[in-house]
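tool=predict chain=A
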Amino acid sequence: MKLGARILKTGIAIILALFLSQLLQLPAPVFAGIAAIFAIQPTIYRSYLSVLEQIQANLIGAAVAIIFVLVFGNHVFIVGLAAIIVIIINLKLNSGNTIILSLVTVIAIMESQGDNFLQFALIRFSTIMLGILSAFIMNLVFIPPKYETKLYHKIAKVAEDVFKWIRISTRHASEHTLLKNDVNRLKEQIIKIEQLYIMFKEEREYFKKATYAKSRKLVVYRHMIATVKKALDVLKRLNRFENEFHRMPDIFQTQIQQQLDFLVFQHEQILLKFIGKIKLNTTIEDSEFLSNKELMEIFFAQLKNLDDEYEYCLYHMMPFVSAIIEYAEHIEHLDKLVNSFHNFHKEQNEVTVQELPEEH
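tool=predict ok
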């Protein structure tokens, strides 16, 4: 089990909240610790949005609690009614994520037993605010992970696994169950990649030039993810129609194998080109590569080569060939994007790409 940055941040934020509460001699420092838990976020931008939402939630909870205590008292039924009102207000403000903190504030304030209620309420409100600010400090102090680095290497790793299975499957060397399980795993990995992409997108730049460069990179990464998805789609269809593919004529199987080998190789080269591992504008010559039109002509030509008994296989091959064509189109577009990224605004784009480290 890995001890991640968020785990460390949460623990240290709680320590800081409790320490400051004791230093300021605030009663019930536990509420500061609880508030700190809710305010921890993975990025500085999310932390900024979160602290605004948490402050709003604290204000809502405190205001409702004070009004209800002053008007109705703090009977248990009144506490429950106040909690319902707080939930409704948060939902109306589209602040569903902060409902729990609002409720914590309500309970913390409405448990007052003494005469100096307003002073008690202010202290409890301040205690929870201290927890929120402690978490915000931790989010600022802890340098967030390099989401671009993680994003690229995650894409490259998933792509590598997909390439491996495509090469194995077209040579009839894959085990159906193992491949099916790995396809499901790869689908989950792509979901994680998309989450990393969102994290990277949310990272804010402080200068206009950096913002424009970031926007260009986002376009490349978005299409990089889309292209890996198309490669996985080819693999899924290959796995699904494995028996039908193996019943097709040998010449057709060989041509599909060569076509996929070329596309996979080209995809690998583009990923390496993006991080500067190979030269820009590198052209890959392959006399066996088929254009989309040639691939469709070969596909329809199989009608003459199939016995009536296996004619159904050709119909099942239609979505498979279609997936290969879409994959080829995505690779072509990705290659143009990567070349354009490096050829234009070179000074702005080059540095970040070079800083991408090797994954060990």
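Residues 5-141 form one domain. Confidence is low (pLDDT under 50) at residues 353-360.
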